[in-house]
Amino acid sequence: MLDYNLEQRGEASLYEYVYQQIRDDIVAGRIASGEHLPSKRAFASHLGISVITIENAYSQLVAEGYICSKPRRGYYACELPDAPVLASAETELDRDSAAAGSNAHDAGEQPEQFAPLSPSALEAARLWQSALRATLTSEDEREIFSPAPAQGTARLRLAIAHHLRGTRGMNVNPDNIVIGAGAQLLDTMLVQLLGADKIYAVEDPGYLRLTRIYQAMGCKVRHIPLDGEGVNLGELLDAGADVLHLMPSHQYPTGLVTSIARRYALLSWAAERPGRYLIEDDFDCEFRLAGKPIPALASIDAAQSVIYTNTFSKSLSSALRLAYMVLPDELMERFRRELGFYASSVSSVDQVALARLLESGDYERHVNRVRVRAREARDGLVALVRKAFPAGEVSIEHADAGLYCVLAPASDKVGDGLIRAITDVGIPYVNIDDCLWANDRTTIQRTTRRVLVQYDDLSPQTLDALQNQLQ
Questions:
Q1: Is there a contact between 40 and 55 (Cβ–Cβ < 8 Å)?
Q2: CA-CA distance, 74 to 56, in Å (whole number)?
Q3: Smallest Cα–Cα separation from 470: which of 421, 412, 409, 413?
Q4: Neighbours of 82 (CB within 10 A)
Q5: Where are the alpha helices (DSSP H) in 141-217?
Q6: What is residue 413's three-state secondary structure?
Q7: DSSP-assigned beta bridge partners for residue 409
Q8: Which of 162, 189, 305, 319 has the largest count of CB atoms under 10 Å?
Q9: DSSP class of residue 205?
């Protein structure tokens, strides 16, 4: 029976401490691959804690791929490939110094006319207005009106480093952070840094604009299909790629979470040859709706082969054009040497305003409110689907992974009816098939009409209207 001293958990919750201990034992090999874990009830009794605590810890481990559940047999440790990895950083949040696009991965262009703001977008707009007013009235004029360095202001980089330590388990040197006006600009800078002569691999289905950005920079692009654990490793090896751009914590558009075993395998792939890199796009990492956020790939990268990128587009607004990347030491030196001549693409005023939001905890509180609304929308959607399709004709995939989920009908007939109902009540959606890359769209073999919907578009009134359409 596993035995952990709960008195050593510090500020961590019970479930979080149990999760961390089991995870670390699996990584270290103290729990062998295929080893049967104690039943939830027996383990809870042994530790003197509730069954729900063990259930939550096991659920998080399953979500990250450290363990798997076998029907009527229990939980078993998964096999982890050898890879150069780091131990997880301390994840306690220092609330005195840190805090926790709209959709940055929109499949289509923005409409010409202005649409009403969603509740989360409206709240973010007001939060930003308040932050700007406070910045302009209370901050030193020399700070907010002086040109920012090419990397961005030291104050914002320090605030982001604290933020990443608290929310993503990453020990980041602020000097390795680069601030940019949106993820697209940073993607083009990475091509300049890594070289347009390299082969860039992207996920398929995926964010099609990313392919176009790389192609516009003169790069060769390979599209790598997904399997149940993430990017298909065999296809990646066959592609001969030098750089893989992926979204391991919440893939767009499928919502898939890359398993820990696949993460280790990808880190091994990157470390096999000098000049290989993984670009980790962590675009809505704050919004996991159940359990702890999935740890960042960069947080376990010992070989410095992961370039971490993120944006405030999902949490605040894509209109603000605020993004950042964390470069490995070697690339950071190259950035200073070859790209340090750039002027900062984000105004000092905006950078100080964002730093204030992170330092004060206002950003974290805003994220928590958005997360609460998303949970309510998710619960409403789950209840609707269960009522409208009691025989399971429609399932909801990855409902807890972030701010959107995928509705997956069991047949084309059900899918066509579902799409008509969604369209009639005005719910925006993205067809997963439309995110597949193909020169000739007619060659795509469509199966069922799997669609992505965002929780912010699902108000109680909208869900009621959808329920009426489906009756």
A1: yes
A2: 15
A3: 421
A4: 9
A5: 141-144, 154-168, 183-194, 208-216
A6: helix
A7: 394
A8: 305
A9: S
Residue bearing tokens 């691959």: 33
Ranges of the chain whose pLDDT falls below 70: 83-116, 439-448
Cα within 13 Å of Cα(13), Cβ side: 12
Question: Cα separation of 102 and 122, whole Å?
Answer: 11
Reading the block at residue 441, the tokens are 């769209």
Contacts 24+ apart (CB under 8 A), 339-345: 339/150, 339/189, 339/192, 339/193, 340/150, 341/150, 342/150, 342/189, 343/147, 343/150, 344/147, 344/148, 344/149, 344/150, 344/151, 344/152, 344/153, 344/179, 345/179, 345/180, 345/181, 345/185, 345/321
Amino acid letter, residue 55: E
Cα 215 from chain centre: 24
CA distance 285 to 401: 9
How are strands ordered across the β-sheet holding 430-431?
394-397, 404-409, 451-454, 430-431
For 109, other C-beta atoms within 10 Å of its C-beta total 7
pLDDT per residue over 250-263, tens digit each?
999 999 999 999 99
For residue 67, the SS3 value is: strand
Run of H or E including 229: none
Q: What is the per-residue pLDDT across 95-131, written as a single tens digit (0 to 9) for each?
A: 233 223 333 344 444 445 556 677 788 888 889 999 9
**Phi-psi category of 48—alpha, beta or left, where left has phi over 0 and alpha has psi -120 to 50?**
left
Among the listed residues 381, 368, 280, the one whose alpha carbon sits nearest the alpha carbon of residue 325: 280
Nearest alpha-carbon partner for 343 in 195, 183, 179: 179
80, two tokens:
């982890």
How far apart CA 132 and CA 347 sit, in angstroms, is: 12
- Interstrand relation of 243-246 and 199-204 (parallel, antiparallel or unpaired): parallel
Q: What share of the chain is helix, strand, coil (3-state, %, to 5)?
A: 45, 15, 40
Residue 10's pLDDT is what? 83
